[in-house]
């Protein structure tokens, strides 16, 4: 019996590993993409890889499959079939591959006696945003950042970091250029 299909998302160009969590010893894992075998591990042998994943994937003993340098064409339905010495098991994944992350865009404006920084990026997934200030050790998990003008030094820089899946991009701005 097939369990529900897990929806997973990767980004063009990143290395993507299917989130396989199996807590028993497995034998002869076979990965299929849209019903075609792309990787298999027969007993006593090394894993065998087939197009389109030949030379850009690795199959681990726990059954997890990593695809290197993800491409748009890697999107599709994947199935892991394995044997636990009692019966066959199946794990289904629907892989969606999104465009690579853009560089975030930073805008700044004055709001009362505070500086308002805003970080934006056009992307089809939900991003995680963080700010890092050159004069502060911790980061701020937010798309906007308010900074009192009196805390803005001539060398203070702000960096916005966007993150999706295993990929990050960042942009920086010197805060002095935001002041009137």
UniProtKB/TrEMBL annotation:
It is found in: Membrane. Its main location: membrane. SUPFAM superfamilies: Immunoglobulin. GO terms for cellular component: membrane. InterPro entries: CD2/SLAM_rcpt (IPR015631), Ig-like_dom_sf (IPR036179), Ig-like_fold (IPR013783). Gene3D superfamilies: Immunoglobulins. The keyword Phosphoprotein does not apply. Keywords: Glycoprotein, Membrane, Signal. The keyword Glycoprotein applies. PANTHER family: LYMPHOCYTE FUNCTION-ASSOCIATED ANTIGEN 3 (PTHR12080:SF55), SIGNALING LYMPHOCYTIC ACTIVATION MOLECULE (PTHR12080). This is LFA3 protein. It comes from Catharus fuscescens.
